Amino acid sequence: MSGLEASGLTVRIGARTLVDDAHLVAPRGQVTGIIGPNGAGKSTLLRAVAGVLPHDGRVRLDDAPLPRPGSRARARLIGYLPQRHEAHWPVTVRHTVELGRLPHQGLFEGLSHRDRTIVDDAMDRTDSGGFAEAPVTTLSGGERARAMLARVLAGQTPVLLVDEPVAALDPGQQVSVMALLRAEATVHDRIVVVVLHDLSLAARICDQLLLIDRGRIVQAGPASVVLESPDLEAVYGVPFGRGRVCDVPVVTPLNGRDPSDAGSAHPDRQGLRSISL
Amino acid sequence: MTRAATVKGTGTVTMTVTATLLGLMLVGALGGLMIGYVSYGPGEVLMGLVGLGDPVVAAIVREVRLPRTLLALEVGAALGLAGAALQGLLRNPLAEPGLIGVSSSAALGAVIAFHFGLTTWASWALPVTAIAGASVTTVTLLLIGRWLPGTLPLILTGIALSSLAGALISLALNLAPNPYALNEMVLWLMGSLRDRSMDEVVLALPFLVVGGVLLLSGARGLDALTLGEEAARGLGVNMARLSATIVIGIALVVGAAVSVSGAIGFVGLVVPHMLRPFVGHQPRRLLLPSALGGAALMVVADTVARVLPTNQEVMVGVVTALLGAPFFLALVLRTRRIGP
User: Fold this and answer.
1) Of B225, B234, B280, the CB nearest to A80
2) Which of A88, A98, A113 to mutate to test the interface with B (most CBs of B within 10 A)?
3) What is the tens place of the pLDDT at every residue in B210-239?
4) Cross-chain CB nearest to A86 (options B231, B233, B235)
5) Total number of domains constituting chain A
6) Residue A7's CB: how many other CB atoms inside 10 A?
7) How confident is the model at residue A46 (pLDDT cuts 50, 70, 90)?
8) Is the ipTM of this structure higher than 0.90?
9) CATH number assigned to the domain covering B67-338
10) Which chain B residue's Cα is nearest to A90?
11) What is the pTM of this model?
12) Comparing C-alpha atoms, which of B23, B31, B24 is closest to residue B303?
């Protein structure tokens, strides 16, 4: 199969199983979304696939096993953008984006002309060229998100794993960042896997969706099928309204379900939901 | 067009900084050879270095001042480089080899050598025990780092080990076999480069070179760490290997430096901090300039310590601490004000 395939992924920390025997298929040229409530294991699953977290199970790319986690060979295939956009020193945005080229550089090698072109291109595409020389620590949340996205794009990896890329962004930027990721998949024929909270955005951008709840994948398949499934209500514990606005799909949580009813399915979420309702 | 120019600019600035520091270091070293109880002109010193001119001047320059100057350069470079590498690894501008207990356990190793009179038995006992002390701490830090990943446990473990080493040093002083040994240990703990010979210069050199190469080889990983451990892993940085490389490198250079000079603090803190803005805050570009800057600062501080008009020669460790401690305090206050 042409794409990314993970099977039997299990992540344990101490006695807790955060991801339990997950199977994931992310086809090339498509955007695959991971959705689920807070604490369901979305980010953990993504981190396991990225190889930054110890895990059981195997991940294959185009039917070949991936190089060892933490190796540069793997970093040349898989670009991973964590949810937290850490920046510990006030280096410029340009230098931050240049870090995306690290897996392609030799031990004492500098940036080649080609590296610089790729870096410029990544900044152009994320519209972060305007603050290229600003210290990355002085950026707004939205600017930082774009700079970090440019960093991961500069790696030019066949696989992009992106955790909550739009969390800090206003609606306009959310749509443009998601369109950018979509273009990475469809135009540049990459495998894009993205963790999302916004189900309408997921409906709009993702081809495939994985619905995950308490470490287990509950539903996987084409986005429309997963979003239509009653599992969505069961997992999030609220009813959803589904429709189209100006020909854009919308999936939005509704009020009205009896808290005690849903609470019986998910006793651990009852407290939270009774606040939101 | 402007972008390409800026990119080139960053590299050129780093080169300029490096060249300036190299110049400062050489001027400082020349000053160290010229200035002393009797001062000589640069011509006399250079003649003396190659064994020409007045044989007395040649003897003083080559036998007394040259080893001391070379040691100052070695120790300063070691401390500056170790400080820059450690700050990069821990992503904390307040980190210093003294902080994670490496310096104090190296000092403990050396004090043990004094206590049991090993130093009179063999000259190499001191560096060996100091590096052994630094290594014990380093290995402990690595093992604990494997159990508890992250930088906070590393710093806390380092503080605990540092306190332990301090207590054991006090114990060794407390139980000193004779006043002479006590005196020797106390003076040595203050940090000095007095009465050193080429033996010490040669003894420390291999450890410094191996440690220095290890630290420089981690440069790329330190750059990636700017984005945090997780992103660095995603960029193909083997975090376990990077930590091991940096920590072993620090143990080697700091152990070697401490063994020949005693405990000299704050060079590893002050130098990287002052140079960081000049290299665009990039951890990778900070390493070499910090080594050069440390060497320059140390050779100047040692010359100052030598010429201060006091009854007893002031220990260079006292000079660096007097300058460094207020600097450290100012840094902490500044961090508090502008946030990390």
Assistant:
1) B234
2) A88
3) 999 999 999 999 999 999 989 999 999 988
4) B231
5) 2
6) 13
7) very high
8) no
9) 1.10.3470.10
10) B281
11) 0.86
12) B31
Long-range CB contacts for residues B120-124, cutoff 8 Å, separation at least 24: B123/B199, B123/B203, B124/B203
Across the interface, of B11, B231, B238, the residue whose CB is closest to A82 is: B231
CATH number of the domain that residue A34 is part of? 3.40.50.300
Which residues in chain B are closer than 8 Å to A43, comparing Cβ atoms? none
Amino acid, res. B320: T
Chain B positions touching chain A (beta carbons under 8 Å): 3-4, 6-7, 10-11, 91, 217, 220, 223-228, 230-231, 233-239, 276, 280-283
Asked if residue A127 is part of any domain, the answer here is yes
% of chain B at pLDDT higher than 90: 34
Check residue A65 and give its pLDDT: 92
Three-state DSSP at A99 gives helix
Chain Cα centroid distance, residue B40? 29
User: Does residue A215 share a domain with residue A179?
Assistant: yes
d(CA B304, CA B307): 5
- Let me know if residue A256 belongs to a domain: no
DSSP code string of A133-154 = TSBGGGS-HHHHHHHHHHHHHH
Query: Whole domain around residue A108: which residue ranges?
Result: 88-154
> What pLDDT does residue B1 have?
38
From A154, A182, A199, give the residue that closes a domain. A154
pLDDT at A259 over 60: no
A-B contacts (CB, under 8 Å)? 97
Tracing tokens 């898989």 back to the chain, one arrives at: A78
